[in-house]
């Protein structure tokens, strides 16, 4: 195994955990098999651009996964409310942050399901 592949896979796993997603759920959302994701995270497979794009759309910091350097959001692109939420989020410990991430993911999933159900009725 190439050390760069192992490091990249470890950062992908770290980011997945930051979002509060289990392997099966994350794999499904990025369009790969769980076994394939395990290969990425374990460093036995290279992660392609299509997978990184899908992961980025879920909130994965792709720059961090690839380079190890975190991408800071452009402050001017944040609304006052978003900036306030981020500042409050940053004062939480890891457990609190994990709870918030899981809550937001659950709320977003519920909203998506409700939206799909409403479209199906039309």
From TrEMBL:
Q: What is the superkingdom listed in this entry's lineage? A: Bacteria
Report domain HTH cro/C1-type positions: 12-65
Report TM segments.
none
Pfam families reported for this sequence: HTH_3 (PF01381)
UniProt GO molecular function: DNA binding
Record's CDD domains? Answer: HTH_XRE
**InterPro entries, alphabetically?**
Cro/C1-type_HTH, Lambda_DNA-bd_dom_sf
UniProt cross-references to SUPFAM superfamilies, sorted A to Z: lambda repressor-like DNA-binding domains
Q: Enumerate the Gene3D superfamilies for this protein.
A: lambda repressor-like DNA-binding domains
Protein name (database record): HTH cro/C1-type domain-containing protein
UniProt source species: Pseudomonas abyssi
């Amino acid at each position: 195994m190439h050390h760069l592949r192992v490091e990249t896979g470890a950062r992908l796993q770290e980011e997945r955990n930051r979002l509060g997603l289990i392997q099966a759920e994350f794999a499904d959302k990025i369009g790969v098999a769980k076994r394939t994701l395990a290969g990425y995270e374990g460093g036995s497979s290279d992660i392609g651009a299509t997978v990184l794009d899908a992961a980025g759309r879920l909130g994965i910091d792709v720059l961090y996964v690839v380079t190890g350097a975190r991408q800071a959001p452009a402050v001017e692109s944040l609304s006052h409310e978003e900036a306030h939420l981020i500042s409050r989020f940053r004062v939480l410990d890891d457990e609190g942050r994990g709870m918030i991430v899981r809550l937001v993911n659950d709320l977003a999933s519920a909203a998506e399901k409700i939206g799909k159900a409403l479209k199906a009725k039309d």
